[in-house]
Amino acid sequence: MDDCRRGRRARRLIFPLVAIATIGFPSLSFAQRFDSVGVRAQGLAGAFVAVADDSSATWWNPAGLATQQKFVDLSLEIAERADRGVSLTFPSLGFSYYRLTVSQLQPSGPIGTGGSVREDSGVVSQFGATVGHSITQPLVVATTVKLVNARGDTQADLDVGVMGSFGPVRLGLAVRDLRNPTYGSGSDALALGRRARAGVSVAASSRGALDRLVVAFDADLNTAFAGGADGHIEQDVTGGVETWWLGERLGLRGGAGRNVATGGGSFGAFGVSVMPYPRLNIEGAMTKGSDFARDRWTLGLRVTF
Predict the structure, then answer these.
(1) pTM summary value
(2) Which are the contacts of 33, defined by CB distance < 8 A and separation ≥ 6?
(3) 8 A C-beta contact, residue 201 and residue 170
(4) What is the CATH number of the domain that holds 287?
(5) What are the backbone angles phi and psi of residue 64, rounded to the nearest 5°?
(6) Cα(233)–Cα(48) distance, integer angstroms
(7) Mind listing the pLDDT tens digit for each residue in 20-73?
(8) Among residues 174, 214, 216, which one has the least CA distance to residue 31?
(9) How many Å apart are CA 187 and CA 264, to the nearest integer?
(10) Are 195 and 220 in contact (CB under 8 A)?
(11) DSSP string, 36-74
(12) I need a surface site. Which of 15, 56, 172, 244 has the fewest CB within 10 A?
């Protein structure tokens, strides 16, 4: 009975948070994609907010640290455009560094002159510390406090995450760049707007040769101006499936999604994890889409204890 009451209280907390995320955030702002980080997440086409059970939770959903199965999880990853990251997590505590290339459309002449636009690329570096707190037994709220450097300007910012676990079902909510910061000034300013995403995942127990099956779905709660050659609006809806085989020495995953904003397109992804030695995973993922700006490969090493 107590567990049922705690579950009802947790659901009452999650639903208002989702509503606040939908209503309270700007309807349009430049933002980084969620799937810029995380090899497993990319292989699931970005359906990871309610999964987030490895060290990439420091980016995807800080509350996912409480669901981490290993005491120590260390991940290293590299991707196209020299993007890279490292994350180290323990239950309810994590540290991370990410270096990402972002693009933003900038006017090539004074605003209002009707001139053309140029695509302006920059590098964003982020150092983060993640901590979590259990509100009730099935509900965790966590925050990544981070220092972000872009355009030679360093500012403090916050990512916030909520995770609710109800048997095999998980509900997740994550909000990135809560302060909605702008780095630099004038025509060189780089704005990183808030981006909110909700997700649900279902994990199935082992059956036969299959060790574990996870099905996940995510949806952006606000639109965002994403960089790239076309500088289009994005609001993604994604889904993915992850399977583990051979005593969880082999992981296979895939997913697909669609940008439901005006002028959006579809995309797909696949990924693999191989454990050649105990505690060591070699991971890779690839994303392809109708928008070439989504095309991306990522490789990673993950060590757990």
Answers:
(1) 0.85
(2) 46, 226, 234
(3) yes
(4) 2.40.160.60
(5) -70, -15
(6) 21
(7) 444 444 434 466 788 889 999 999 999 999 999 999 999 999 999 988 888 999
(8) 174
(9) 27
(10) yes
(11) GS-HHHHHTTT--TTT--STTHHHH-GGGGGG-SSS-EE
(12) 15
Domains: count for the chain: 1
Give residue-wise pLDDT tens across range 226-267: 654 445 788 999 999 999 999 999 999 999 999 998 777 999
Q: Which residues fall within 8 angstroms of residue 247, CB to CB, at 6 or more apart?
A: 211
Residue type, 46: G
Say how far apart CA 181 and CA 191 lie, in whole Å. 6
DSSP reduced 3-state for 292: helix
Q: Domain limits at 55?
A: 2-304
Q: How far is it between the farthest Cα atoms of the chain?
A: 67
**257: its two tokens:** 């999604």
